[in-house]
Write a structure and sequence with these properties.
alpha/beta; 55% helix; 5 strands
């Protein structure tokens, strides 16, 4: 199985120094559209985790072909999210998104959606990480990752930590 990633998931897992989780979860490939790569290497280059993403050799960059749908999604979403959703549709893959509105739009298009929290819960179940709580607390301390208390508690319940 492959995935198409948005910049937030890549940067956040890079900040945790756990980009390897994506390769383990999606051994057939991790893809990103050009707008996502620009967000990581351009405007997001100073964010913690961006350098780790930029250093990878395994994230494959590909442009979505349906530019009409990308433009349509851009009315509500950013360029990276729009391109990631369309590329995931074209590749019939999971799309990695953290932002609520982007996730909602992807689900409306019947795409399977996974975010940083979902990757961490999966990793805990696979015994690849010890604690979802520690990872989320680390991310929230640096104000790099916003998470509602409800989602935080649900993540801890789903990972067996609450």
């Amino acid at each position: 199985m492959i995935c198409v990633a948005d910049s937030s998931v890549l940067i956040t897992l890079g900040h945790l120094r756990r980009l390897d989780l994506l390769l383990r979860r999606f051994p057939d490939g991790v893809w990103a559209p050009p707008a996502v790569w620009r967000e990581v290497t351009g405007q997001g280059a100073s964010r913690p985790g961006a350098q780790e993403v930029t250093a990878t050799s395994w994230v494959q960059i590909e442009s979505p072909k349906n530019t009409h749908l990308v433009r349509s999604l851009r009315s509500d979403l950013g360029p990276g999210e729009s391109e990631a959703i369309v590329l995931a549709l074209e590749k019939q893959s999971v799309v990695l998104l953290d932002e609520r509105e982007a996730r909602k739009r992807a689900r409306a298009l019947l795409l399977p959606v996974l975010g940083t929290v979902g990757v961490l819960i999966w990793a805990k179940r696979e015994r690849l990480i010890e604690s979802v709580k520690e990872a989320l607390d680390f991310l929230q301390r640096g104000n790099q990752f916003r998470l509602s208390l409800e989602v935080y508690r649900q993540a801890l319940r789903d990972s067996g930590e609450l």
